[in-house]
Specification:
With 93 residues, this protein is mostly helical. It has three helices and two strands. It has a two-stranded antiparallel ribbon with strand order 1-2.
Length: 93
Amino acid sequence: MADKMSSSGSMTATTPASERELEVREIAYFLWEQEGRPHGRDQAHYFRAEQMLRERRADQPTMTPRVEGRPGLTADHANGTSTPHRRGRSPLS
């Protein structure tokens, strides 16, 4: 479980389910924008985003190799191939 800062400035705990929900919503929003912000397609975008997230996670390996002697550092971080998500970038990449 991770902690996040709420809009009121207090720390709130987030569960994997709520983190997943936020990711689905972000992808659905991106899909909505890509389609020209059509009215009445919110459920279609949401369900498509869920499916895309399931497919993406199914393609990912379950174990991430760790860099020896560096707790919490993965091989992707060490060789520079890890790309953190940033605002303004597509959540689909």
